[in-house]
Amino acid sequence: MRWTYWMWGVLAVALALLPLWPGAVDSYAFSFLFFVFVYAILAQAWNLIAGFGGQISLGSHAFFGLGAYATAILWSGNYLWGSLYDSHPRIYYFDPVTMALSGLVAAVAAALVGLPLLSKLRGDYFALGTLGFGEIVKVLFINGGTFTGGAFGIVAPASTFETLLPHYWTGLGLTVAVAVGMRLLMRSRYGLALIAVRDDEMAASANGIDTLKVKIAAFAGSAFISGVAGSLFTYYLFHVGPDSVFDLNWMLLPLMMTVVGGTGTVMGPIVGAFIMYAVFDAARILVPDYHPVVSGVAIILAMLFLPKGLTRLSFGLPGLMRRG
Amino acid sequence: MANRLLEVTDLEVAYGDVRALWGVSIHVDAGTVVAIVGANGAGKTTMLRAISGLVPVQGGTVTLGGAPLAGLAPEAIARLGIAHVPEGRGLFRQMTVLENLELGAFQPKARRNMRQALEKAYALFPRLKERAGQKAGSLSGGEQQMLAIARATMSDPKLLILDEPSIGLSPLVVQQMFSLIETLHKQGVTILLVEQNIHQALKIADYGFVLKTGEIAMQGTGAELIADPEIQKAYMGVLEL
Amino acid sequence: MFDLPPPAIFLQLSLNGALGGAMYGVAAVGLSLIFGTMRLIFLAQGAMIILAAYFVRALFQSFGIDPFLSLVIVVPVGLAAGWLIYQGLFRKAAAEEDRNISLLIAVGLMFLAENLMTVVWGGNTAGVVTSYTASGIHILGIRTSFTRTMGFLIALAGTGLVMLFLRKTLVGKAVRAASEDMTAASLMGISPHRVNAIAFAIGIALAGAAGVAVATTFPFNPFAGFIFSLKALVALALGGIGSVAGALAGGIILGLIEAYVQFFVGGSWTNAVAYGVFLAVLMFKPEGLFGRPYKKA
Questions:
Q1: Which of A131, B217, C171, C217 could be disulfide-bonded to B212 (CB atoms 3.0-4.6 Å)?
Q2: Residue A299, CA distances (Å) to A36, A247, A292, C241 in order
Q3: Would residue A164 count as lying in a domain?
Q4: A259 within a domain of the structure (yes/no)
Q5: Using CB atoms, which residue from C89, C98, C226 is nearest to A307?
Q6: Contact C48/C204 with Cβ under 8 angstroms?
Q7: Cα dist. C257→A143, C12, C154, C272 in Å?
Q8: Which of B75, B85, B89 best tests the C interface by mutation, with the highest count of C CBs <10 A?
Q9: Alpha helices for B80-208 (secondary structure H)
Q10: What is the fold, at CATH topology level, of the domain defined by C7-119+145-284?
Q11: What is the pLDDT of residues A235-283, one digit of tens each?
Q12: What are the sequence ranges of the domains in chain C?
């Protein structure tokens, strides 16, 4: 099965070299792929806690929003680089420190709410709790005064970019990094422990696994990835507002993409993100007035006819896609 | 063969990669009590669940009065006349005793005879009449088991399946339980019984099967099996010490 | 701190809160039924309510049918629609172990309904204005809106009928049994698909009734439903998941909380407080405010 690794690797390199193709950068496909990357990262994040961890979270959009706000706040307040910023105003663009901190903010928030939520709530109750948490975070940001910019939000100091090239490469790099990280994680002791907790919490606990710790770590890890995706999106949007980055779709669409691609698989979220975003975008272009209707129909049809996810169909692409 | 009610042939069941039953064949004649005994994890409960459609079957056939049951949903099998008192009793704990009994006669055929069935059940279990308005979850363990069995008899089933009726009950209540099963037997109810209380079960059983790691290790009349030295050694030795 | 308001204002707040909250309650009763048998968080319930509201408006504007009279059309249509929605969309998914699938179908249905409404009726806020929209009546000496009071009565009647069905009929008892233990229910010969379909039929019919109440009281737009679903979930948790009367009471309590928070703290905080209470109840009193803790068998 080694060739599947090669295949994905070749695909990643090809995508990385795509901008060298004349005209590619200005093409529609280029921005399309950037969005696929953002959604693929978010889908991976959701898959970590829900697919591998078995804890259905309906609050992942909150972590995306937290990451987006963290970047916008760090940037607009220049909390990081002081005088260096004056000489290099672009220092915040895809600055790894800012992006990592944004992920960290989301991860810390997840750990803090995860402790009570995951220790007290199981199954559907956890799902409901995270849904409530997401709404609370949104209201807190609306009421956050000058710090969060209230209902309007925050506009980053820079508000234009000449090319999407850095976004594209950063998005691709993060997508690859997250996929590789997931693969390694699910092969590690921790990944096995997570799957053990998902499959039978009692048995896992009887085998000496600290199930709460494992679940909180997965929740925080998932939030970190979502937060980094939020940070990435801030560099695209520049204007971060409660209604845009805390929109429920940032949770629902990645969730759907993961399920379509294959829950609990490493490549499923990426495949799902690509296909579902392609469907949505095609609908947006071809039938602009009706495109959300088409999206709704697409979700229902996908669930009715592909409930196990695309990657579970036997295309002869096992290896990377196998569960666990 | 004249009165063969339930015929299970070469039944195979697996949970994922773990095989629980390896081609098990048993049969139950109408009007008899048949006991399936065996150690924990031998596959007894799995077999009952396969018969009533609660777990999918990989191979083999199950017929009730000649009609195949394979592939039918549990509710369809219930309507064909199998009443299964599952492990853990499956009572509706938030509902009253009376409501539980009524639901036992949910099937259209049984619904018409609801009142007679209720009277019959109350005659057999007078305690349940006293507790009719109480929530099932508030009953004692023995009463709950009585209710579960009474509920199963409400549909006047062709076959009554009892999964570990004595589990978790005090010795005195266990005695009551087994004499109750004998009473039902005398009334003509066909009973398939799974028990860990091997001695008691074989004593009241017309016929018995010994299940060992997913296969039938032995079969015979209840008396034969009780007398078998190997069974005494393997299963009853500890109890008889 | 704030000054305590005069009792009259307090009463007025309580009454308005309770009347408005009953609508969350009736939505929660539907969610409760569907969750009970299918373990599905039916996020599209709010969208169904708004769809019903548009339907009521269309009946009023095109055929001059009085919104309250349209209940006799909306409720049967809701029953049939619920049955069809289950058979067409959820029947297959209900058999799957992965309940994400049902959840996503509900989400898809929500998208579909919201956007179909936008296509058909436009995205602007709509309302139903009748001769009595602005009229008020007096309850305990407090003046309140006639339509809100009617909405409250509809919620009360709807919940009462559902309770009667669940407690007095054998099929209703089967629905309750299935909510408690689907496996045991199937051993009684109760078909899971049948009780699921019944739960859906009643749930959507209740959404229809709530739609009448919404159409006559509030301005609405195609996307107003989701927040309704969330509020209904809060009401559901407050009242104890699985309890029909509790769901209505939970809705009324939520309405009261919202009215008080809006008056004493400020309108922008109502949602945060509502969801905060929701989380607290989920964590510390998951059986709901009125439920007694019980061990799961």
A1: B217
A2: 17, 18, 11, 28
A3: yes
A4: no
A5: C98
A6: yes
A7: 19, 14, 21, 11
A8: B75
A9: 97-104, 108-112, 114-124, 126-130, 141-153, 171-186, 198-204
A10: ABC transporter involved in vitamin B12 uptake, BtuC (1.10.3470)
A11: 998 899 998 999 988 998 898 899 888 888 888 999 999 999 998 888 8
A12: 7-119+145-284
Residues spanned by the domain of A184: 28-250
CA distance C200 to chain B (A): 20
- Name the more confident of A4 and C29: C29
* ipTM confidence score: 0.90
Every domain of chain B and the residues it spans: 4-81+158-240, 90-156
Q: Within 13 A of A33's CA, how many CA atoms are on the CB side?
A: 26
In angstroms, the separation between the Cα of residue C271 and the nearest Cα of chain B is 33
Residues C115/A293, Cβ–Cβ less than 8 Å: yes
Topology of domain B4-81+158-240, per CATH?
Answer: Rossmann fold (3.40.50)
Q: Report if residue A299 sits inside a domain.
A: no
Give the pair of three-digit tokens for residue B229.
Answer: 């030295």
User: Residues for chain B: how many in total?
Assistant: 241
Task: Give the residue on A whose Cα is nearest the Cα of C281.
Answer: A129
Q: Any residues with CB less than 8 A from the CB of B223 and at least 6 apart, and which?
A: B202
Q: Specify the pTM.
A: 0.85
Interface of chain B against chain C, CB under 8 Å? 52, 54, 73-75, 78-79, 83-84, 86, 88-95, 99, 102-104, 106-107, 110-111, 137, 151, 155
Q: Where are the alpha helices (DSSP H) in C64-169?
A: 71-85, 91-94, 100-121, 146-168
Number of domains forming the structure of chain A? 1
What residues in B contact C174, CB-CB < 8 Å?
Answer: 103, 106
C29 in helix, strand or coil? helix
Q: What is the pLDDT of residues B9-30, one digit of tens each?
A: 999 998 877 788 888 999 999 9
A·C CB contacts under 8 A = 122
Say if the Cβ atoms of C100 and A50 lie within 8 Å: yes
Question: Nearest CA to C211 among C39, C49, C13, C48?
Answer: C49
Element (H, E) at A167: helix A165-187
